[in-house]
Amino acid sequence: MFLLVLPRTNLFVIMNFTFKAFLLAIFSLYLISCGQKQAATSEINEQSIVSQITEPVIPEYTVNLIDYGAVGDSLTNCKPAFDKAIAVVKEKGGGKITVPAGKYLINGPIHLISKLELHLEEGATLYFGSNPADYLPMVKTSWEGTFLYNYSPFIYALECNNIAITGKGAIDGEAAETWSIWRTKQRDDQLLSREMNHNNVPIEERKFGEGHFLRPQLIQFFDCNTIKMEDVLIEDSPFWCVHLLRSENIIIRGVRYNAYNANNDGVDPEYARNVLIENVHFNNSDDNVAVKAGRDDEGRAADHGSENIVMRNCHFKGLHAVVVGSEMSAGVQNIFVHDCDFDGKVKRGIYLKSNPDRGGFIRNIHVDNVSFGEVEDCIYITSYYKNEGEGHVTDIRDVFLNNISCQNATGNGLVIQGFPEKKVKDVYINNLKIDTVNNPVSMSDTENIVLSDVVIGKLATAPSSVGGH
Question: Dihedrals φ, ψ of 449, to 5°?
Answer without folding.
Answer: -95, 115
